[in-house]
Amino acid sequence: MILLGVLLLLATLSSYGEESLLSSNQAAYDGTQLTLKGEVLLDHGLGKIYAEEAILKKQELGMEFPFSQIDLRKSVLFQLCKGEELSCDHAILDFNALQGLLTSSQLVTYTGTLHRGKEKLPFKLQGQTIELLLKKEPSPKESVTKPLKEHFNIQEMKVKEHVQLSFGEGYLFSSDAISYEKYSNTSSSLRSSGKALTTFNCTGDQIEAEYFQIVEGVVSMKKPRGNLFSLSREMLFFQAEELIWENFNELLTLKGKIFIEEPFLGTFTSDNEVSVSRKEGGLAAFKSLGNTTFHDPHHRLLQSHGTWTFDKFLKSSVIESPIIEQKVPKELQLYYEEGNFGMYANQAQVDYAEEKGVLKPISIAVKGGIQFFSLPKEELSRFGLADHLRYHPTTQTMILLADPPNKVLLIDQREKVSLSAQEIHITRDSVTEREMIKGIGNVRFLLTAEEQLKLKHYFPHGF
Amino acid sequence: MSLCTGIVGCILLYLLTYPSGQERNTSTPFLREGHTYTQYRTRVQKDLWLQQDSRLHCHIESESSTLALSPLQHKRLDVSEKLHSLQCWMQEKLYFKQLSPMQQVRVFKADEGTYQYSNQTLKTSHALFSLLELPGNQLPTSLQLPNNCFKGSAKKLSFSFSEKRHQKIEAEEFKLLSPTQDNL
């Protein structure tokens, strides 16, 4: 008797169980339209759909879900596959046309995940309306005992009016419209149409762009310009033709017509590419390719045509000029000027030491085809050639070296001194500001004709 | 008792052959207001035809039923029939699929239901129903329901046989179940 009771109870539970295709508190059906009211639940091939009211039309027997047109109202919530959710006030879905329109008096909200390999980046997309383009997923063949089971997935979403995209840890993108394309459950993209504004809530970074897209977790923007607080102590303004932000490894790349300005560091321009990596909320490294110019507030100027890298962890910065046919062309050498000193060279390395959280240069090593001279160049008073230059800012000592058989050559017109030596040391007294020039090795105070010719080649105005 | 049953039977015969099913004035002065007159029936069958786009057939059968007459004020009469262990087959639409006649049919099953003659509405409790597509345009009344038809349940289910209301169904605590479940 008890067993019979249990069986009856189980039978009742199974018929009122969770497998229902749809349920509601009230329903009305007139042969063409099913109207549901109160706690409406549809278990659809798209996912579980909740609403307070639903009108289902276009009855199609032979399919697992028998209605192809669904009109949902009030507190509409779609729980889609892989944890995706859509919420709105009103949704109209047509599964024959594979289209949907979602609207809300506030904002229609979609939450999903962007994938990059095994990494998952949750995002939230909001707008006044969302146009859905659906796709049918491959389904097994129709059988006699089982109707055709159809699965649907979102193929594309067009989000319009007051569109906002929250992404990663506090990134907020605003745009006139954003489209979301889903290629598979692990591959998708987000693209803006119309101008985009990006803000990063944590730091206050703000970027305006003509267009942005997020593909495989990588953010890219066209014609970005904005202010970044996350890379410097002060506000950093930048603009470029293109921006690429790889959130997963915190790498920012700027491409084409790059301009960066920071009040304490100076201005930085590049015509090719600059990549900046961030670690623990601050600048970790950067790399600049192409024609790069750096101008600081102390009138120091550095121009590079090759690669300029900086690594905060190694406390080192390296500038390398491009090599063509095993040598650096003269016009592609790096150029540096400070005060009344100017120099061309093939390669430079600056090593830093950290002092109260600030990196200060402790050693500068320059090598290859060094031409040094006094400024202004029109009133050339001192000039020379060397293969290596080492400068120690703390002792204000400059050491010039030559690779044998070369010699360091120096002419000082004001002091009326010519010097040829294996090594020349120039030291400046920090109190008297007086300079001491010291030749080491085989020192000669008269230059050979060949040495004079060599200098004349580089400094025709000096003679 | 048998006389009483005979009188009620005569009245019912008169009422059921009356052209309209609406509440109507009656000139039967011997039916007392506030009383309900009943007739018990077994193996009841009703067949109705509704004119929509096509002529649709509805078939109701029950193991037993109790017909009740309740005289109302102003010489009006309320007529209802309580059906026990009922099943109802209703053609929803007739159509052709690749030149073959087809029909869409609703099937209801309930332990109990009340048919209200005044508004031609059948109200059932804890009903199970199915929606299926069948070949032909003749309504079958005995058929093993296939697994791939739609099945559902409702705590309360009412449907109208009025031509004007287009066979409208209203339900409370409505559930449409997965076609693979065998609940009916």
Structure description:
The complex is a heterodimer of chains A (463) and B (184). Chain A has a domain at 21-215: Sandwich (lipopolysaccharide transport protein A fold). Helices cover 5% and strands 62% of the residues of chain A. Chain A is built from 2 helices and 35 strands. Chain A has helices at 2-15, 449-458; strands at residues 20-29, 34-44, 47-59, 67-79, 85-94, 99-116, 119-137, 151-167, 171-184, 187-200, 205-209, 211-215, 218-222, 225-228, 236-239, 242-246, 251-255, 258-262, 266-270, 273-279, 282-289, 292-295, 301-304, 307-311, 316-320, 334-338, 341-345, 347-355, 358-374, 382-392, 397-401, 408-412, 417-421, 423-428, 435-440. Chain A has a 20-stranded antiparallel beta barrel. Chain B is mainly beta. Chain B is built from 1 helix and 8 strands, in the order αββββββββ. Chain B has one domain (2-177): lipopolysaccharide transport protein A fold (Sandwich), CATH 2.60.450. In chain B, strands 1, 2, 3, 4, 5, 6, 7 and 8 form an 8-stranded antiparallel sheet that branches. Chains A and B meet through β1 of A and β6, β7 and β8 of B.
